[in-house]
Amino acid sequence: MKNPDSSLLLNRTEKDVTANAKLRLYTEISEINLDSFHFHGDPSQYRLTASIAVPIDQKSGTLLRGRYVSQDTRTQIVQPAEVIDGFLQNIFQIKNVIDAIIVLVEIATMLAIILVFALSLRLRQREIGTIFKLGCGRMTIARLLAAEILLIIAISSFLCVGFMTVVDHFKHDLVRMAFI
């Protein structure tokens, strides 16, 4: 069907036709507009791979699904809501397992950090004793150790933020390389 309104066309070449937004788009296939639909290319290349069937009632839907239960047919009927619900349920189960693993790794990391600081203090007992004998009070020694711990935390936090900024910048590329 050719449209006599030339104001609908923005550009026409031998290969392409570009229309503007005034072009009427069909949102429903009916008997009136059925003849205006056509394929561009060889129709044998356009095999039917999916269709949407909306039964008028539950009985019709059950009968339709019953026709495609046979094992020897290559077609199947899928109910999208049930498939998506099952898919999301699997994803959230995997998420819960990964969250539990992350919590266990966090606990193990904190215990390892506490162990490192405890062993460091134990190895430095003679050094701390010498500082005490030179006249430093217990609060000064505690402040020195606290300053050392805060310095380690500040440097590691700075490195962590820098690393996370780089990862955030390249997250889409990293996901594509790692998983796709």
Question: Would you kindly provide a written description of the structure presented here, covering whatever features stand out?
Answer:
By secondary structure, the protein is mainly α. It has a domain at 137-180. Helices cover 58% and strands 4% of the residues. The chain is built from five helices and two strands; from the N terminus they run ββααααα. It has helices at residues 58-67, 80-123, 125-133, 138-169, 171-179, and strands at 9-12, 17-19. It has a two-stranded antiparallel sheet. The longest helix has 44 residues, at 80-123. The radius of gyration is 35 Å and the shape is elongated. The relative contact order is 0.03. The mean pLDDT is 84.
Features:
mainly alpha, two-stranded antiparallel ribbon, 2 strands, elongated, 4% strand, 180 residues, single chain
SSE inventory with pairings:
Layout: E1 9-12, E2 17-19, H1 58-67, H2 80-123, H3 125-133, H4 138-169, H5 171-179
Antiparallel strand pairs: 1-2
> Mean pLDDT, nearest integer?
84
Helix content: 55-70%
| Count of distinct strands | 2
What string, H for helix and E for strand, traces the elements in order?
EEHHHHH
**Measured on Cα atoms, how large is the radius of gyration?**
35 Å
- Uncertain residue segments: none
Beta content comes to under 5%
Q: Which strand order do you get reading across the main beta sheet?
A: 1-2
